[in-house]
Amino acid sequence: MNSPDAAFRLEVNAVDTLRTYAAIPSRYRTQTAFEVGTEEGAFTLQERALPAPFDKDYDELESPLQWPRLFDVSRWAMVSAFAGTRLVGGAIVAHDTPGLDMLEGRRDLAVLWDIRVHPDAHGQGVGTALFCAVKHWSIQRGAETLRIETQNVNVAACRFYRAMGCRLVAAEAGAYPALPGETKLLWEVALERQVPK
Question: H helices of 24-142, where?
Answer without folding.
Answer: 58-61, 67-70, 126-140
